[in-house]
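Per reviewer request, we include the raw input and output of the structure prediction for the construct analysed in the revised manuscript.
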Amino acid sequence: MNRDALRRSPVLSLLAAGAALALAGALGTLGGGESAAPPAPAGEAARAPVVRTSLVCPRPTAVEEAATYYTAYSPAGEGPAGDSRPGTASLLPITPYTPGTDEENPDEDEEATGEDTDATEATDDSGEQPGAEPVVESAEPGVPVAVNVKNDEATALAGTAEHRVAPGWTVQQSSIVDTSGARGLLGTACQAPAADFWFAGAATVDTRHDYLHLTNPEDGGTVVDIELYGPEGRLETGIAEDGVSLPGRSGVAVRLSTLTDEQHAGLAVHVTARTGRIGAQIETVDEQLGVDWLPAVTGGTDGRVLLPGIPADAKTVRLVAFTPGDADLNLSVQLVGATGTFTPAGNESLFLRSGLLEAVELADITQGEPGSLLLTPEDSLTGPVVASLRVTRGDGSKQEMAFIAGTAPVEERASVSGNVLDGTELSLVAPGETAEVRVTWSAASGGGDPVTEEITVPAGTTVAVTPELPEGAKGRYAATVERTGGGELYAARTLTVERDKIPMFTVQTLPDDRSRVTVPGTGENIGLLLPDD
């Protein structure tokens, strides 16, 4: 029915009016809890909490004798008001998929490629394991839920949080590998599914074993395209036309070195889903430096990139950067340190040629103080920048690595879970003006009470915060960071676990949790009730 026909129908006009009034009433109940803002005037947009959040967790590392821990958390006081339905959140297992099996091919029967992908055999043709029970469940905001799993039984996970526990729902996945040749702490925040991802810092050299984990949480299949970029531009992969087929509710791990014959110590990786939304993360195994997850970049669309959370005792810092835009970019390089911002001698700027990857060794840039790296365009030319840091701690054979990806700022609020009682450090960064911050350390999964502190981050500095938890705290807990005033704020969290004098560690950035959305304003329009002549 066209627009004119709709206007000529009094019955449909009344139905439309009723629907609009119902929608206005429904929107009036959003934004809830004690933190709800007063209703916006008629016709003006309002901010309200989301009522549904989706997350995807990659399959844990396949290294033997590894243990994986999940911690789920939703901040308190943010759920939609007036919603009588209880909040629920759960993550269900995703079936591992082996390309070349008899499972249904997605997207017009395109054949899967990459037979050398490292994935376990599929356990069920339907994609979702029959009778599967949730691996992680939570129903109460403000209360973290911790679950341990054995890696030989672990799969990728996907799920949703609804109603009271939806705003700010976050899940941390941490694995400890304590074997020779592949020891370390792998940490990652489960991610919202998307159609496009960029990574910087992958590798295909003999001493690195990088696996791109692709997870499809949707019922329908899709095809995923993978592009690799090195110092001389885009690499030939042999799957440019076909892509990688991924059936509904399945996951696969693609070893990057099987996609190209070229060996590179630094690569940018572009992952796109032709239809639907997926999860994508890169597991890195370095024969000398341990293991960790290389996360997707979430900031840098305008050429300005901040990489927060470089530990004070970092031994080496390696920057890998790439611009996929049409223009070359000249970027200034600065360290936002504990006492101010300065330019590292010998690395004052970085020139990025369009489509060509650059890698820079920054050595011990922090000089014993916590810091964050800031890249800023030096002229009027701007464009997207994909950048990550590989950071090492320890000496000799006891070195351990972690990755820090360029991240988006904390506009309103961000949370991170999976914190441990000993070995947690929060980095707060104000690259411009002074920022006012409220940090809430939640109750732990095994007991204790939440603790809140107000922190001022001076302009141009990185502040490292170690939690002071009350007596009785047991288990794992979460941290919520709120920007209460001032300038831009960035954040990261470092977990450290020492084994045999090896400082195993991992760093997760805290982009804004996007727990509030803008709701269009509504107003009275009597014209909806009157038919056109």
